[in-house]
């Protein structure tokens, strides 16, 4: 794809259309209420939240992309001046409300931009996304994959978010006399908070701006800004610190919970090499057998899930590996499914950054792409051998089920396949251009 056509999560001038994966701040750097360069494509949920994030934004610029449908874009080649068509399909990224992946097809070939995503096997959203993605690719090679490589490191192995949510509930119930502080972002972790609220039958405090987001997302009765109504508070992540927890504990017993896949650390006490301060230590976790008493650190009953994903600091701070990004094993499964010819990590600022080719380069290349196509065709040929399946009915008759092969897409926007690469990238955003 030529430079000057499409940008994803990149908001400088020079493109004809722009795509937003989701509304987290690191994906909207350069986007503002006064931004007005070109049409901006996003999900329906993101469009609904847009005015709260960017008051005064010209909403006529927004174009809603429906999940699982091809959308056709009529663009102009910057070099030849001739018209060209690019098709795009959105897939739910399973990261936060409104988050999308984008699959692009055109004369340049086929490209997938994941944005931030969580590819957990237990998720129904992922199962639907897998079907949409494979149907969208059909029998075509994936020329390049722009990949969320936040946790592209074998050290990161997370439980499902469902398991992590149960672990957090266990921590809360083990501290019935404590106030609870949970660090979250301005968007995301809604399913976690809903699980806590419904399991414990309590309301959850959020700050006023976050309450507005909750109402826009359709949650009206669970959240409150009145501290007198609940002992569980969800606070901005930036305000979650040891100093804050120490101060709160001078008023009443309080524990903090940080749900994140990243190793959580705080600034070292000046002159002390221990990042948790001289009084802080990891406790309460028996990694040999996974058993833990959240209240005092002693061995106890079998908890919900593998507690190697739970750590305790300073006696009143817990970290739980509740991650909205894919862990290493999930990234592996995703790349193995797609086998792109080439790939590029979209995150370069992660403290654990590793080029995805280091671990997964063997799954990329022309041979691997054709391997995926041949596997798919072999499977389809096996299905075609059985043109009609006789099904015994409950009344002794039969009925025929035919046409097992998926219907081919009626439009083919692919021309000659050329290599594509990253021309320029700041943060997560990309502008795509031919080499």
UniProtKB/TrEMBL annotation:
Q: Does the keyword rRNA-binding apply?
A: no
- Where, per UniProt, does this protein localize? Nucleus
Q: Does the keyword Cell cycle apply?
A: no
Record keywords = DNA damage, DNA recombination, DNA repair, Endonuclease, Exonuclease, Hydrolase, Nuclease, Nucleus
Per the UniProt record, one Pfam family is: DRMBL
Q: List, in alphabetical order, the GO biological process terms annotated in this UniProt record.
A: DNA recombination; DNA repair
Tell me which GO cellular component terms the UniProt record holds: nucleus
- Family membership noted in the UniProt record: Belongs to the DNA repair metallo-beta-lactamase (DRMBL) family.
What is the name of this protein? Protein artemis
């Amino acid at each position: 794809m030529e430079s000057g056509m499409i940008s994803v999560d990149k908001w400088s001038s020079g493109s004809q259309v722009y795509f937003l994966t989701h509304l987290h701040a690191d994906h909207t750097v350069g986007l503002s209420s006064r931004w007005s360069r070109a049409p901006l494509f996003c999900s329906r949920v993101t469009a609904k939240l847009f005015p709260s994030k960017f008051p005064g934004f010209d909403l006529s610029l927004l174009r809603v992309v429906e999940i699982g449908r091809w959308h056709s874009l009529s663009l102009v080649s910057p070099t030849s001046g001739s018209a060209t068509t690019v098709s795009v399909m959105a897939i739910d990224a399973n990261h936060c409300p409104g988050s999308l992946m984008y699959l692009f097809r055109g004369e340049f070939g086929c490209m997938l931009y994941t944005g931030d995503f969580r590819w957990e096997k237990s998720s129904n959203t992922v199962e639907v996304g897998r079907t949409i993605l494979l149907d969208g690719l059909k029998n075509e090679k994936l020329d390049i994959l722009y990949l969320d490589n936040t946790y592209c490191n074998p050290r990161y192995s997370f439980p499902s978010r469902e398991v992590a949510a149960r672990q957090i509930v266990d921590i809360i119930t083990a501290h019935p006399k404590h106030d609870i502080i949970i660090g979250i972002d301005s968007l995301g972790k809604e399913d976690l908070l809903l699980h806590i609220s419904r399991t414990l039958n309590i309301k959850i405090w959020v700050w006023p701006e976050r309450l507005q987001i909750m109402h826009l997302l359709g949650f009206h009765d669970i959240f409150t800004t009145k501290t007198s109504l609940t002992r569980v508070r969800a606070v901005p992540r930036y305000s979650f610190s040891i100093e804050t927890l120490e101060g709160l504990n001078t008023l009443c017993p309080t524990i903090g919970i940080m749900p994140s896949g990243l190793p959580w650390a705080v600034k070292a006490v000046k002159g002390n090499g221990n990042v948790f301060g001289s009084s802080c230590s990891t406790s309460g976790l028996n990694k040999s057998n996974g058993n833990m008493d959240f209240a005092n650190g002693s061995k106890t009953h079998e908890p919900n899930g593998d507690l190697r994903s739970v750590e305790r600091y300073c006696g009143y701070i817990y970290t739980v590996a509740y991650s909205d990004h894919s862990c290493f094993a999930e990234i592996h499964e995703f790349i193995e499914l797609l086998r792109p010819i080439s790939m590029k990590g979209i995150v370069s600022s992660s403290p654990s950054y590793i080029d995805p080719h280091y671990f997964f380069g063997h799954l990329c290349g022309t041979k691997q792409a054709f391997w995926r196509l041949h596997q798919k065709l072999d499977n389809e040929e096996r299905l075609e051998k059985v043109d009609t399946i006789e099904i015994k009915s409950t009344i002794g008759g039969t009925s025929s089920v035919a046409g097992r092969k998926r219907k081919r897409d009626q439009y083919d926007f692919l021309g000659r396949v050329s290599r594509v690469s990253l021309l320029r990238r700041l943060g997560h955003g990309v502008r795509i251009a031919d080499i």
